[in-house]
Amino acid sequence: MTAAGDLIGSRWRVLGPLAKGGLGHVWLGADERTGRTVALKKCGLPKSLTAEKRSLVRLWVPREARAFARIQHPNVIRTLDVLLDGDAPWIVMEYVPSRSLLDVILADGPLPPARVAAIGLDLLAALTASWDADVLHLDVKPSNVLIAEDGRAVLTDFGPAGSKAGVAALAEAEVILGSPKYVAPERLFELITDERSDLWSLGATLYHAVEGRTPFTRETTDDALHAADAGRPDPAVLAGPLEPVLFGLMRRDPAERMAAAEVRRRLRRIAPASRRTRVLRTATAVAAAGAVAFAGVAFAGQSPSPAPSSSPTPPPSAPAQVAAPAPTLPPGFVWWTHQRADFRVAMPKTWKPAWKAGTLRCTSPTGHPTMTVSPWTDPGNVLAALTRAESEKPPPGYRRLRIQPLDDSPGAIWEYTFQDPQAGRMRAMRQVVKVGPSWYALDWRAPATDWATDLPTLLEVVPTLTVK
């Protein structure tokens, strides 16, 4: 049983659950070497497989996963590592703050045809990049499509994917992986798989997005398979100009299925005219801990909150793990600075700031999480300074998770849990970093049970730290 705090492959620390799917669980994790936040997928195996086929798939997944690790594209989740740990394969992927397309549909209902067309173009670009790398995805569906905060659609969860040769070998053993309501009929009934199978799944996914339901609305898996065999998806009601594309993609005979080039041409005519090519934003996860009194950040009182700064932010000069190439104001955030501080940083506009001696502490409306940015005055041996702070006065229930140097830049990171008398079990992370000529301690504190939920806010804050 995987739980928060577990270490996978002697490197990847499990932080908390992210999602659960038909072929495995996904956790938020951290790279013990760099502090980077990642997504960790434990690839489950269908219970229907025989012991022999389970052994085949267990060995097949890591080998084939290395094929899609070669894919580098802004609409494809990057694979960072593939390994066997315990009883199942694990895939380590980049973490992108986002919502799945399925969650968007459930929250917002059917999406407008123009928006679905834009999503379709992103997914088609992702699939084309995969095919160019000789990889088939084989499980395109709304829960495997992420809608990132910059609006782009990102294809994730290449769990059943693999090279064409590898997929053929698995089919020969009569093993078909994927979600039945989105799997092309030729894969289910003729064990034939190629790029056109991914196109069928793309059509079913876009149908679900624009109609708010799957193409086959029967409730049971057997009925869904029967509908797929008949090759007759339910009529579209809301698709409008997308309807010819959807049914062109979901033609029963792969030879008659709409080709990728034609799909792209039609989607471009439907997508918003303002749609532009999006640039991949690297979500390196360096995290920071909450204000820790025994580590030198204590607040005897709060000074009046200054007004948010409207002046432009200068380009960053921090190491890559601290700042993105060009910090911009995230939606729902405001810039905070102070005349006595030599830095500026973006924080959620609903949070309450307090300044003391050049240190900024921001607190969420509920009291947790908190984020503190303060000057660091002991850059000589950061690792020793953190270790010394740990030994001086640890809080109740203290348990170290790690204290280690950063791999590729000066500084160190300290992560731990402790017991707060009012808030219960807390988790904290402090990272000491150099930004330009200056050193800072970034402190993040949140309830341990909410760590995975609150972390996306931290991922927005950290890249905005710049020197004034």
UniProtKB/TrEMBL annotation:
Q: Which Pfam families does this UniProt record tie to the protein? A: Pkinase
Q: Which GO terms describe its molecular function?
A: protein serine/threonine kinase activity
Q: Which UniProt keywords apply?
A: ATP-binding, Kinase, Nucleotide-binding, Serine/threonine-protein kinase, Transferase
Q: Where is this region: Disordered?
A: 301-324
* EC nos: 2.7.11.1
Q: Which intervals hold domain Protein kinase?
A: 12-270
Q: Where is the composition biased (Pro residues)?
A: 305-318
Q: Which domain of life is it from?
A: Bacteria
Q: What is this protein called?
A: non-specific serine/threonine protein kinase
Native organism: Paractinoplanes bogorensis
